[in-house]
């Protein structure tokens, strides 16, 4: 009888330890998954804000550069017009020809600068789009990982429940066999006592 009681205690202890371990694993996996997803989403939001700020801040600077270029051209044209007569008297060179040459050169350089500014703005927009796509992909991957982790936890949990159920059945069988054995032993002892008396 002592061995039956001990076996029952051992099985109960094993069942409780299995439940406790399963609970700890379940909680750890859920906490880790939630922290991972929160971290990825938070980082993605920071990158989005950074790129949005960069695009907002670069636009006024580009506009100011274009304004400075055209202000410089206008100033140069005014100086050329005012200084034409004097320049012609001093050098004997026709300032209108020279002005048209300078204007052509200025237009050429202006077009180069405008093209450069447009390419830079386009690159910034492309980079922002790529960053947004990367954040979206990372978020999707994190969600998939979380889903997989939850499925794994559910699988482990169901396996642990099945194991606990089997252990309970085994404990019940062992207990039943122990009771049957104890009854048989009592009968045998009674018979032996009757024979002895």
Quaternary status: single chain
Secondary structure category: mainly alpha
Largest sheet: number of strands, sense, barrel closure: none
| Uncertain ranges | none
**Tally of DSSP β-strands:** 0
Number of helical regions: 2
**CATH class group:** Mainly Alpha
Distance between the termini: 26 Å
Tell me, rounded to a whole number, the average pLDDT: 76
Order of helices and strands: HH
CATH superfamily: Methyl-accepting chemotaxis protein
Rounded to an integer, what's the Rg over CA atoms? 44 Å
CATH topology: Helix Hairpins
- What is the domain total for the residues? 1
Judging from the principal axes of the Cα atoms, what is the shape?
rod-shaped
Strand residue content: under 5%
Second-tier CATH architecture: Orthogonal Bundle
Q: What this model shows, in words?
A:
The protein contains 2 helices and no strands. The protein has one domain (2-190): Methyl-accepting chemotaxis protein (Helix Hairpins). The model has no long low-confidence stretch (mean pLDDT 76). With 197 residues, the protein is mainly α. 97% of the residues lie in helices and 0% in strands. Helix 1 (2-91) packs antiparallel against helix 2.
Entry summary:
With 197 residues, this protein is mostly helical. The chain is built from 2 helices and no strands.
């Amino acid at each position: 009888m002592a061995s039956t009681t001990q076996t029952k205690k051992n099985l109960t202890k094993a069942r409780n330890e299995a439940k406790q371990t399963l609970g700890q694993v379940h909680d750890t996996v859920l906490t880790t998954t939630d922290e991972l997803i929160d971290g990825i989403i938070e980082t993605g939001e920071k990158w989005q804000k950074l790129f949005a700020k960069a695009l907002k801040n670069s636009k006024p600077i580009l506009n100011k550069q274009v304004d400075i270029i055209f202000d410089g051209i206008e100033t140069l044209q005014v100086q050329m017009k005012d200084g034409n007569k004097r320049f012609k008297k001093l050098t004997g060179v026709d300032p209108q020809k020279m002005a048209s040459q300078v204007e052509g050169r200025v237009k050429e350089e202006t077009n180069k600068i405008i093209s450069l500014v447009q390419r830079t703005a386009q690159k910034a927009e492309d980079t922002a789009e790529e960053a947004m796509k990367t954040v979206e992909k990372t978020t999707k991957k994190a969600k998939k990982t979380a889903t997989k982790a939850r499925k794994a936890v559910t699988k482990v949990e169901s396996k642990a429940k099945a194991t606990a159920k089997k252990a309970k059945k085994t404990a019940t069988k062992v207990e039943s066999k122990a009771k049957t054995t104890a009854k048989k032993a009592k009968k045998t002892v009674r018979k032996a006592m009757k024979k002895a008396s």
